[in-house]
Amino acid sequence: MISRALPWLCALAVTVPAAAQQRNGPGGVASPAEVLGYELGERFTDHAGVVRYMEALAAASPRVQIRPYGKTVEGRPLLQVVIAREDNLARLDEILDRNRELTDPATPESRARAIAATNPAVLYFSYGVHGNEASSSEAAMWTAWDLVRGAESVAGVLDSAIVIIDPAVNPDGRDRYVGWYRQAQGARPNPNPEAREHWEPWPGGRFNHYLFDLNRDWAWLSQPETRARIATWMYWSPQVHVDFHEMDWRSSYFFFPAADPINPMYPKHILDWGRYFGQANAAAFDEQGWAYYTAQGFDLFYPGYGDSWPSLNGAIGMTYEQAGHSRAGLAIRRPDGTLLTLRDRAEHHRTSGEATLRAAVRRKTELLLDFARFHRTTGEGVPDVLLVPGEDAGRIEALVALLRGQGIRVEQAERAFRADARPHDGFRARREFPAGTYRVPARQPRGRLAITLLQPETVLDATYSYDVSAWSLPYAYGVEAHRADRVPDAGWRPIDEATRVVASGNGPTMDRPYGYLVAPGFSAWPRVIRYLEAGGRARVLDEGFTLDGRKWPAGTIFLPRAGIADIAAALASSGLDELAVPVASGFTPEGNDLGTEDAYALELPRVAVLTGDGVSATSYGALWFFLEQTLGLAFDAVPTDRLGAVDLDEYDVLVLPDMSPSAIGGKRLDDVKSWVERGGTVVAIAGGARAVSEALAGIKAREDDASKDDKDLARALRGRSERELERWEEQVPGTIFAVRLDPDHPLAFGAGVDGMPDRLFVLHTSGSAFEPDESFETVAYFPEGLEKVSGVISAKNLERLSRTSWLATRRVGRGRVILFAGDPVFRHFWYSTYQPFANALLVGPRL
């Protein structure tokens, strides 16, 4: 490769300057150049190098402690680097105990003032949650070195603060990017934007091992990196959190204040502090003459970000965005003629971070007092949330487990009670609540987070949000929810101490049962898969029936004893013993007997999932994680460019993630159609479904009524604001709907809301759905007169989606095509739609 690097860039490849060889600061603290062998900005530092430098700091200085807090999927360590004065490190636990007092709503203001006057602030910086936004970890090392050696730019900071630096939140993604870049670069950086080193291949280093966007996962805890980090949060309880990012290489620098919309759950002082830190950053950038902007583009609404989630827990959470991203490489020539280097990018992050540190300690006492006030006022005038257990206990158990993972206090009633409560939209009103009902108090340290996640809707006072506009977890899990201002004594106990009143409810034990029954629900599917892997047999019954006085719904799974040497052992090893109910006979007083032919004999399907160029990396990643970690179903990842070479007859099911039509066009699509006609099953979601619906199954997507010419003419005559509004109206920015199910269809078995088997809550993120037709089966659809349950959507899109199919299926030859208009495993937190998707994989090939 011929490099067209400018002459001065050649200096980046020379040896470390003599000045960098000097030891600086207390105890002779080594510079990054001494440890790494190059100046920061000369090259990208892989994760091992980042860890090596932080360990060198800890070895050289009593101001540094390294706290490993977990490992990535690929085994890389996750680190919190604690930097403080030596005396403060010696009494760190004492300082943090007092700091956590400030998070207790019951802590009196007088006690908070005493703590705020004497305790240091806790300031937490996170770098590199997106692995290919790589300058941030370089800045982390630079900032850590400055703090440890007592550089002038951070003089006095450690007198008033404990600083925690997470130098690489996403090590796996970082090393994916850095490894690729090292292979792609030439002898010297090439600033031409068209050079290979500026075009990172699919899937990119932005994501973690499972291709999840970790900056969307703070609230959902789907990934091990997130779970490990959140598990430490209450220990630190920081007053400030900065999440360092990169954005488009042609941009400048963004810091707070945030743009609208702002989550209304934040008290005013959260926004005031964001403005204060923005002014401090602006002064630092003004001094250097660097470009920046504020209050545009990056809002504070969706609760899963590294700025919004900490802010819901009382910190001043902020995102800082430096121009660069993966396109920038080591150096890139921008359209305005300026040259942006890795060193520039790291220095900008270093400057904003250190300006933030200085600003925080200048008003340290006020910062702690507002932190205490945030928690002291939590829950004032806000109702508690009641969660009612239903027939599918797995749903509420999964929701409660998520809340507990977030450190949210949840209590359970030992006895039934009455309360005046308001149901979430879409659920039926009640005054009588059963024993086993859960309560999530609004007044608790994480009360604002709890209410944001559980309330039916967070009001979006804007026409645009950077992310989804709705996320209410009772809908995501299909759990009946109510809000109550007052709740009587019902023997409430924190669930960690309570004996669960709602159990799976096994029937009486039997020496030689005829078999076992398992109610349909997603919590059963991973166990059924393990049972089948162990040689067990299972049948999904097509109709409801009554046995031993209990009504069993369609979709019940029957596990016959016949042919299984030790069914009790097989049940125990798979975990089905917790769900399975033994029965003495296959004869049913009402409905088909257990040996009916109206059943689907389950076999483990051989599954392929399309991946690679043209496929949404996060959609494939969610499927990968869901199948491998949640469902436990083995699959092969088939790259798009191998689709024509792979023998599809080796598979029963082909899953198509969200993707562009180009990923499966032409001969690839012809090959898939021939395979379906021979007996294969396609399960396609979101963009994948739109790409193949008509070609594979003759199912058309809903089109606008207006002609293209009329639309183009109207748009051409509109002003800028009107055009922007029209673009927004084309979107469905993550809106919750109640779709109607056909409860008798096998793909809907166990999917309906308790007490409403024809209702399913979905999070829809596009304006697409399918035009109903008698030639295929619609399993779930948007009803006439569609209204949103939560979130924002234009009237135009409501009309477009009304009376369209969300889940459709059609037999094609000897095979089947199953289409989901949305993504049923979106970000791995919308539990409600796991069940129909699992049905599609496991029962779909048997239809």
Task: Report on this structure.
It is a single chain. With 847 residues, the chain is α+β, with helices and mostly antiparallel strands. Helices cover 32% and strands 19% of the residues. It contains 26 helices and 35 strands. The strands form eight sheets. It has a nine-stranded mixed sheet with strand order 28-27-29-30-35-34-33-31-32, with helices on both faces. Helix 10 (268-288) links the parallel strand 7 and strand 8 (299-300). The two termini are 55 Å apart.
Report the principal-axis shape: globular
Radius of gyration: 28 Å
Query: For the residues shown, what is the average pLDDT?
Result: 92
Low-confidence stretches: 1-26, 498-505
Number of strands: 35
Please tally the helical runs, counting DSSP H or I stretches of 4 or more residues. Answer: 26
**Roughly how many Å apart are the termini?**
55 Å
User: How large a portion of the residues is in β-strands, by DSSP E?
Assistant: 15-25%
SS content category: alpha+beta
Question: Main traits of this protein?
Answer:
globular; alpha+beta; 26 helices; 847 residues; disordered N terminus; 7-stranded mixed sheet
List strands and helices in order, with pairings:
Layout lengths: L31 H5 L10 H14 L3 E8 L5 E7 L2 H5 L1 H10 L7 H10 L2 E7 L7 H15 L7 H4 E6 L4 H14 L39 H13 L3 E8 L5 E2 L4 E4 L5 H21 L10 E2 L7 H5 L3 E8 L1 H4 L2 E3 L5 E3 H21 L1 H13 L7 E5 L4 H13 L5 E2 L4 E2 L3 E2 L8 E2 L4 E3 L6 H8 L18 H5 L2 E5 L8 E2 L20 E4 L6 H9 L5 E3 L3 E3 L2 E3 L4 E4 L6 H8 L6 E3 L15 E3 L5 E5 L5 H15 L3 E5 L13 E4 L10 H11 L3 E5 H12 L10 H9 L3 H10 L5 E7 L17 E6 L12 E6 L12 H7 L2 E9 L2 E6 L13 H9 L5
Parallel strand pairs: 3-4, 3-5, 5-9, 7-8, 27-28, 27-29, 29-30, 30-35
Antiparallel strand pairs: 1-2, 2-4, 6-9, 10-11, 12-17, 12-18, 13-17, 13-19, 14-16, 15-18, 20-24, 20-25, 21-24, 21-26, 22-23, 31-32, 31-33, 33-34, 34-35
